[in-house]
Every structure is written in C-alpha cells, then in structure tokens.
Amino acid sequence: MGKFVVLGLGSFGFYIAKSLYESGQEVIAVDSDRTIVEKIKEFSTQTFAADATDRETLEAMGVKDADAVIIALGPRMEPSILSVLYLRELGVKEIVVKALNEDHKKILEVLGATEVIYPEKDIALRTAHKLMSGNVIDFLPLAPGYSVQHIAPPPIFIGKSLRELDLRNKYKIQVIAVKEIIPEKLHLIPAGDFVIKESDMLMVVGRDEDIMRLSH
Q1: 107 & 11 share domain
Q2: Last residue in a domain, options 86, 117, 148
Q3: Per-residue model confidence as pLDDT tens digits over 73-110
C-alpha cells in the first residue's frame, strides 16, 4: 500500500484522492476549505483543513514519507509554486502538479516538479484524436508524434490473425495488447495466431500518422 498526499480538493484533487483511496492506498487529503474537507473524509485515511502553502504545516503532515504528493491548487499560480518549493526543501521525491497553463507548466518543471499535468490540454488532444479518427477509442501520448492508442479493429481486420495482418511491417505499428469484450479478457503481447473479432479492442503503439493511416 502506498502513501499519497493530495493538496487541494477541487474536482481534480477530489477525484484523484477518491480514486487512490478506493484502490486501497493511504491518502492524506488537504484543503483550506473545511466544507470540502468534510466531504472527502469518507474517501481518505486522514484529512487536514490547512494551508498547503505553509512549510511548517506540510512538514507536520509528514509529507516526506509520502510516495507522492499531488498538488491541485488553483485558480492562481502562486500557491502551487510555493508548495513545490517547500516540498522540494522537505525532501519529497515525487511531486505531481496540476498546471493552469503552459507558462505555469514550464515554471513548475524548472522548480523541480517530477510530473506536471495540464488536464485541459490533455483532454483537448484526446478529443481531437478521437474526432480525427472514428476508430480511435483512447490514446496516451509518449513523445511528440508517438502514442499508445486503443482502436476498434477496421472491418478488414475481422477474422484475420495478427500474423496475417503483419501490422508491424505494413504500417510500422506494434499491437501490444488486445482486450476481448466477449468473453472479457486481456491479452498482453498477443501471439501471431491471435484472430481478431469485431468486439475486440486493440492497444497499439507507433507514430500518430501511421496509426491514423491504419484507422482510415
């Protein structure tokens, strides 16, 4: 079981804390608003109605022992910037921060945040990819121009094995998993003789343009 501290319990922070707790993790939830803190109590191990930008308060919470601290403070930049500075001083190794915009993201990275999340941009990119290709169900960017994507198999795939499709050579795409819906089952690194069904979902990795070409 891991230990996580969530600073800021707006929608983003609240649902991260809730999800971690429901997955069996130890969660310390912190917000300056006592009303929000009361709401998160049933979805956390411990709660604090406190100022997450106060160094002494953070130290008293034992943030140094956390596997990760998630900062979801807003709608101003300064609170998250101060929190990152103090968490670094206190020796926290894993700091995940929600950014408000690209400039904020750059500042947080310079200050030492180990991961910066910009939810609005991520959602926009994912939505754009889905709109550009009806077959794309979800995607995870890896590097500029490369991603892992879930796609529904095009009609020409149905009834054929991965060996027959030869996607690696024809499209420069690697199938890393197949999720069967009927019956529900996940195949990691499926064998070449795996036959694709209409109800299957494919997880593929490759260049965005190659995956888009495949999906069309």
Answers
A1: yes
A2: 117
A3: 988 899 999 999 999 999 999 999 999 888 998 999 99
Tokens read off for 197 = 């069904």
Judge if 180 and 107 occupy the same domain.
no
Name the amino acid, one letter, at 27.
Answer: V
CB 72 within 8 A of CB 16: yes
**For the whole model, what pTM was predicted?**
0.62
Of 73, 92, 117, which residue is a domain's last?
Answer: 117
**How many independent structural domains does the chain possess?**
2
